[in-house]
Amino acid sequence: MTATALSAAAFGEDPGMWPLPAAHTPAELWLRAVAAGGQGRYGSAQADLSALLRQLPAGGLASLALSTRASFLRQLGGHRAARGWDGRALALAGTDGASTVEPAVDALVGLAADALGVGRLAASATLLERADAELARVDVPPARLAIRRAWVGAELAMAAGDGMRAQASAERGVELAERALPALRRHRVKSDVVLAAALCSAGAIDRAREVADRALTDTAVYGLVPLRWALACLLSDLGSTTRATHEVVTIREQCAAEVTRRGGRWSGG
Known about the structure:
Layout: H1 2-11, H2 26-38, H3 42-55, H4 60-75, H5 79-92, H6 101-117, H7 121-135, H8 143-159, H9 163-180, H10 185-201, H11 205-222, H12 225-238, H13 245-261
Helix pairs in contact: 1-2, 2-3, 2-4, 3-4, 4-5, 4-6, 5-6, 6-7, 6-8, 7-8, 8-9, 8-10, 9-10, 10-11, 10-12, 11-12, 12-13
């Protein structure tokens, strides 16, 4: 029962669940950390990841835990710091003899995002190609992995100044996440975050505002504080069609403060 509830919070239809049930296994610790991190409860999430890695220092689940820790650092601006954790995650993928696809793709996509965050676009593209090769090893790649791949592909295209390719990749992420519903509810909301940014890159500002405004409402419904902060940052520049500028700025500042209260530490790179 605990695993079912934690799965619903981490990768299901209830990403705003709080308090989360206690975890009793390493797999449950990972699910609990993913769910808490999605809500910006980084202190709780990091404690669960540390407990997991003490119990299980190697293997696929440990690799996923390290990739998750790296993703938290990236969300807070720490792309350089995240790179080390993603590198360790890739080294651990498959060390328990289990399937390497999920941990390897998580680590490779994470490394691609890390490279992108420090301006290494060619390295990011190469890492995404390696992730694609891993995804091609299975007939039907897990939706979560394919969606994350689409996000980083869109971000890479934005950084390269290719707005149309960014929009196409972001829309692919939305399509995959929509198809997965009611699972991956948080991924569906984040896909709109990526799409709004990609639409800006493509010059479709009015549609970007519409998508961002809708997603901002969703982040309140599901308690997704980090995504709410990102959308408020975007809308403070774009202007919202449904909220006054001072309201958007207030949301941005409140979310940043809430992340700090919940154990997050902002980084400059």
